[in-house]
Amino acid sequence: GTARAVLVGASSGGLVSQVVATGHPQRVAGLVLISSPVTLADKPGVTAMREEIMTLSDPIDPRFVEQFVRGTSPNEMSEELVACLVDESLAIPAKVWRESFLGLLQAERPEALENIHVPTLLLSGSSDTFVRDDQQVLLDRIPHSELVVHDGVAPGTHLATQDRVAQDRACFIHAHRLP
């Protein structure tokens, strides 16, 4: 029943948000992309990750999930949060892991970024080498975008600096009078 909303996507969720914003612009009032790539195709390690994910079967090996969580999260994250993310990820069937990953690879539409005409906030960590170069591409190609960089933060800006990300998001929504 909601006509328009502000989409918030972190990491690969940022790719999903970009696809929604370009495919259904009338439904998107604003966009917040946190540590979001433009594409996964050019990222080191994605080919190896794809091969590993495509071989997953149920039950998924907890060691794989823990390695995945730790590899895509900041080092500063508490062991309690790591355990929570591992438990939640273990509840996802192997088929969903495989299909979701393939969907993310196929959903990349960077040529349409210029068609995003809503206020867009880009949040990233200065030490996030996985998406650092993508932030400038997003900033250059999305017309109404602004970039906020959290100094010294690596992957998982939303996990490493939760309070600051929440504050940045709230200030952005308020400044643009978004729903």
Pick out its properties:
single chain, four-stranded parallel beta sheet, 14% strand, 179 residues, 47% helix, alpha/beta
Briefly say what this structure is:
The protein is an alpha/beta fold and 179 residues long.
Q: What does this 3D model show about the protein?
A:
With 179 residues, the chain is an alpha/beta fold. The two termini are 14 Å apart. Helix 3 crosses helix 4. It contains eight helices and four strands; from the N terminus they run βαβααααβαβαα. The model has no long low-confidence stretch (mean pLDDT 92). 47% of the residues lie in helices and 14% in strands. It is globular, with a radius of gyration of 16 Å.
Mean pLDDT: 92
- Shape type: globular
Q: How many distinct helices?
A: 8
The side-by-side strand order for the widest beta sheet comes to 1-2-3-4
Q: How far apart are the termini?
A: 14 Å
Structural class: alpha/beta
What assembly state would you assign to the polypeptide chains in this entry? single chain
Radius of gyration: 16 Å
Question: How much strand?
Answer: 5-15%
Q: Give the beta-strand count.
A: 4
Helix content: 40-55%
Largest sheet: 4 strands, parallel
| Run of helices and strands | EHEHHHHEHEHH
Low-confidence stretches: none
Reconstruct the topology from this structure.
Blueprint: E1 5-10, H1 12-23, E2 28-34, H2 46-54, H3 62-71, H4 79-90, H5 94-106, E3 120-125, H6 132-141, E4 145-150, H7 157-160, H8 162-175
Parallel strand pairs: 1-2, 2-3, 3-4
Helix pairs in contact: 3-4
